[in-house]
Amino acid sequence: MGVAAVPWRADVPLRVFGIVPQQLERNRLWRLLFAMYECSSIYRYGRVELNLFISEKEYTVLTAKPGKSKIYQALTVLAQLGYEIELLHKEPWSSFATNLKNGKLAIPKTVQVPNDHLCLVRLTPQENLFTGGLKPSNASTFIFMVKQSFAKPKSKLTDRLNSWSLDNSDRLLKALEIPKKAAMCNLYPEDYKRLFEALQNSDMFAETLFHDEVLASTRTMYL
What we know:
It comes from Zosterops lateralis melanops. By secondary structure, this protein is an alpha+beta fold. The chain is built from eight helices and four strands.
């Protein structure tokens, strides 16, 4: 590419402009997230800035707030932790050509969120992403921990910790100042990172709990 790799905390080495195809749009966003957290693909050059057209539906998910269990998802948490997300422009779908023979727009149908526009979004990787215990080498474990947490978004955090065979969950949550009755969908992205870093330092937690699931999830992302 003719671009020299720079340290993660250096300035943005490259800016990319493009449009995310509507077909399998969510999968493509997941692949970008995996690559960013693992510093692979284009991110091996550093904090590459993406300027992408994505659907309003996916933009709404990326920027959702805690508590909205139907749109606040694992993708939301990981994107907000990993990127500075900036909306640059919203363009109505009617401005774009359609691929339907009857002349109507091929707009993906949605129920829970608006999807009337294509959004130009700037995604700049966070300079301080890899601080504390989160590193590219254990990022896939962190990603799976977040994904597993949202399997039942309204479940209590204590129940999830107990499912991971963590016996000192009450003490851990007290140290993190997270309410014991907090639901997974009510935690902020930063809470998930702090939780992961605390689990990394816990004698009761082992990454081997997620080993098989991480491998399976990673394979699926890159099929």
